[in-house]
Amino acid sequence: MKELTLKSKVCVYSYEELSEIDRQLIDKAKEATNRSYVPYSHFHVGAAARLMNGTVVTGNNQENAAYPSGICAERTTLFYANAQYPDQPIETLAIAARTEKDFIDSPIPPCGACRQVMLETENRFKHPMRIILYGKKEIYIMESVGTLLPLSFKAETME
Ligand code: THU
């Protein structure tokens, strides 16, 4: 038997330690939570994608009475960015989440389906996508999606 240890590097920051441009992206993700449609979970998630050309696209979670028909903030944002700017790699994606009361303390962990879509977005442009997970107490930054989804299924797997 051999053992395989998978390592993921995550940098942990406070809001004050971040660059102005990253802080602005987080602020846009936080602001996007105000436009979510969440009558069932009351959990507001927002995301902001900074494209290589500097454009910022935002999105949020949109729920539905038939629960699986809703969609997370990350996928709303990535699919919208790709629908509008199909030639623009995404340089950084910031995600923030709050209850009705306040933003959550720890960094928001994206769901598995969103991680898979993030990976495909990164792969289609062959450009690493930085991920910023906002939490009130600390902020996680990853230099690429692989960190969030090791041992991933991708197109090459089928070759
Ligand atoms: N949600 C997101 O939008 N992103 C995540 O990373 C986790 C979960 C949404 C889906 C649903 O509208 C609500 O949060 C509760 O699961």
Kindly list the characteristics that best describe this protein.
binds tetrahydrodeoxyuridine; 159 residues; Cytidine Deaminase, domain 2; alpha+beta; six-stranded mixed beta sheet
Write a structural description.
With 159 residues, the protein is an alpha+beta fold. The protein has one domain (33-147): Cytidine Deaminase, domain 2 (3-Layer(aba) Sandwich), CATH 3.40.140.10. Helices cover 25% and strands 21% of the residues. Strands 1-6-5-4-2-3 form a 6-stranded mixed β-sheet. Tetrahydrodeoxyuridine binds at residues 38, 41, 43, 45, 61, 63, 70, 72-74, 108, 110-111, 114.
Summarize this structure briefly:
The chain is α+β, with helices and mostly antiparallel strands and 159 residues long. It has helices at residues 20-32, 73-84, 112-125; strands at 11-13, 44-51, 56-60, 90-98, 130-133, 139-142.
How far the N terminus sits from the C terminus, by CA atoms, comes to 27 Å
Summarize the helix and strand pattern as letters.
EHEEHEHEE
How many domains would you count in the coordinates?
A: 1
Low-confidence stretches: none
The number of distinct helices, counting runs of at least 4 residues, comes to: 3
List each distinct ligand once: tetrahydrodeoxyuridine
Shape: globular
Gyration radius, in Å = 16 Å
What's the CATH C level?
A: Alpha Beta
The CATH homologous superfamily:
Cytidine Deaminase, domain 2
Helical/strand content category: alpha+beta
Report the CATH topology name. Answer: Cytidine Deaminase, domain 2
How many strands, which pairing sense, and closed or not: the largest β-sheet?
A: 6 strands, mixed
Helix content: 10-25%
Strand content: 15-25%
**Beta strands, count:** 6
Q: Supply the CATH architecture.
A: 3-Layer(aba) Sandwich
